[in-house]
Design a protein that fits this description.
With 345 residues, the chain is of the alpha/beta class. Helices cover 37% and strands 16% of the residues. The chain contains 11 helices and 9 strands. A 9-stranded mixed beta sheet has the order 8-6-7-5-2-3-4-1-9, sandwiched between helices. α5 packs across α9 and α10 runs parallel beside α11.
Length: 345
């Protein structure tokens, strides 16, 4: 996602965001169904949706997709005395047989969309003779709306029983990460990946004092302002939502930028949803859209503090409310593009 430090203190933009979010509606977008699995629409209770927000991710997105695809299609082991292959353990734990891929291009200006279309074409050709029940969708936002807006768009274009939010950079090791989350789905509405355990590693200890201080200060403010007392890492981009919980939360989501995770946690606590935080394998990946200079990190921290204060105040004052009904789609139609790829201008 794009992080422009010059916009962090734009008061007029901040006020406009609050006012516009009083009645949040879906972002206008173009929907391209690149490959449709037969029977998917009638089997939403057996579907895992994988929602990936992408802003200028032409280099990192294919690598992330390949790692995920390899894990989900890996030849399963055969049980003793049986010639039948066992289902993927994560899919089995989720009770899912279908996969729906939803990539949300958040106003990308590079070749992200073209690269994704090519990837799906190659995948479809490779699996043309196989019974792989997957659907691939591309949602295109006309301009950069923010990571929160992109994830919300993807979540509300799905009706799957489980919806997984995954960052396009592939920083979380997909296979082990999904396995870790899937073990805790039976008793929870939300299972979120966590990098908190990595703070004890040598690499984490080598980070600057300011970065360490900002991290601890952010967590303290999350506890005070959002009530995330049991959550150590609200910002990890690997979160699994039960479908009913995702619909309730993302219908009401107001924040469009980096701090949207904190509003999700705040709403989930208010709705008394069950949340489990689980350690996941994670690594730094080059190409971050967030500049990690000391000054920029400080600006990001201030901006996120501003948004967290906004969440607490707006809900406390009744400016923002938890919504149950589906968001309005009057402003901005969602044009569905047929399976066949459209000719580019």
């Amino acid at each position: 996602m794009n992080a422009n430090a010059s916009s962090f203190f734009d008061l007029s933009d901040f006020i406009a965001t609050i006012l516009a979010a009083l009645q949040p509606s879906l972002e206008p977008c173009r929907v391209e169904i690149l490959h449709q699995a037969q029977g998917l629409s009638s089997n939403s209770q057996q579907t895992l949706s994988i929602i990936i927000p992408a802003y200028n991710e032409q280099d990192r997105l294919p690598k992330m997709l390949q790692a995920a695809v390899e894990y989900l299609t890996a030849a399963s082991h055969k049980s003793k005395g049986s010639s039948q292959q066992q289902q993927n353990p994560s899919m089995q734990a989720l009770g899912c047989t279908h996969v729906e891929w939803i990539i949300v291009s958040d106003g990308s200006t590079d070749e992200t969309e073209h690269v994704f279309r090519n990837y799906v074409t190659a995948w479809a050709n490779k699996h043309s003779s196989k019974q792989v029940s997957w659907t691939w969708k591309l949602l295109v936002l006309p301009r950069n709306a923010g990571k929160g807006a992109a994830v919300r768009t993807g979540m509300l274009h799905s009706n799957a029983v489980w919806r997984l939010m995954v960052d396009a950079d592939g920083a979380t090791d997909f296979g082990p990460g999904l396995q870790a989350l899937a073990k805790h789905v039976s008793a929870n509405d939300i299972v979120i990946g966590s990098r908190a355990h990595l703070q004890k590693t040598k690499a984490a200890k080598q980070r600057g004092i300011l970065r360490q201080g900002l991290m601890h200060a952010f967590h303290f403010l999350c506890v005070v302002l959002v009530g995330a007392t049991e959550i150590q890492d609200t910002q990890c981009g690997f979160k699994l939502f039960r479908g009913s919980a995702a619909t309730k939360l993302f219908n009401s989501l107001h924040l469009r930028g980096w701090a949207f995770d904190t509003e999700l946690i705040y709403m989930a606590k208010k709705l008394q949803m069950t949340i489990q935080e689980v350690d996941v394998p994670w690594r730094e990946v080059e190409g971050s859209k967030l500049h990690t200079s000391t000054l920029n990190l400080a600006l990001v921290a201030v901006a996120m503090l501003r948004d967290m204060v906004c969440v607490r105040l707006c809900y406390t004052l009744g400016l923002w409310r938890l919504r149950v009904r589906a968001p309005s789609t009057r402003k901005g139609a969602h044009a569905s593009v047929p399976r066949r790829r459209r000719k580019e201008d």
